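User: Okay, second chain of the day. Same drill as before: sequence in, structure tokens out.
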Amino acid sequence: MSPQSLSLLIQQNAAQLSPTDRQIADLVLSFPGELASYSATELAQMSGTSNAAVTRFVRRIGFRTYEEMKRHVRDMRGTGSPAYLMEKQGVGSIAEQVKRHTSASMRNIEDTFAELDLDVLSEAVEGIATARRVCFIGMRNGHFLAKYLRWQVSESRGGTELLPRGGETLAESLVDLDEDDVLVIFAIRRIVPTIQSVLALTKTLKCRTLIITDLYFRAEAKATWTLKCATRSPSPLDNHTSVLLLCHIIADELLQSLNAAGRKRLVAIEDLHVVIGEM
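Assistant: Same drill. Structure tokens below.
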């Protein structure tokens, strides 16, 4: 079965659906990710239909059996699709939400830094400190993380770039990177084809590479350094607290590593802020 969402499968087969099918479809689409927890009998009861009606519906949207549809749902949950991570039941008050997310953030931080290889982290910081250029790339959530780390790094050293540069293709942005450069790749869950291509290129690129990723990372890549972060969340949206903390630590360690040169640049930036009247 192709990795299409249930909503698309239902839309594509809408002409074949009976009123009873649509009744089941409405229920399925209200909590697709939890479908794997229910039997066909339970789904029939919740939708006010019958087992036979559920069987017909499953076949009309392209599955051979109800179990096959449940496996499809489990696979979609595994990709991190927010639509499949939503809960049918409400999550409680705002106070309960704050508690859930605070606890999740703390667990992610603890899990990340309990497993993080500090020697790899130190070597990656040293690589960034000594590189001719440091380039950053990320898509979706990885884009804002790449932009954030590039901004933080640029406070203490020059020669930083966010790729691809405006109007350029990725190939045009990567072609000049060599042994003196470092490419930082954010490959956070639900990796898009562009990032998959960059990861595949780590086997042949001349530059050193740092991959910042999540605990589920399994892509084929040959990075100089790899740092993994826990991004689990009690909601459909991944929690990036530990990734942001790692970025902060990298930037701060870089400033310490560059020592006088880093402080001199930071002071020069602050002086220019005053002259230009930006702050």
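The first helix runs from residue 6 to 12.

User: Thanks, on to the next one.
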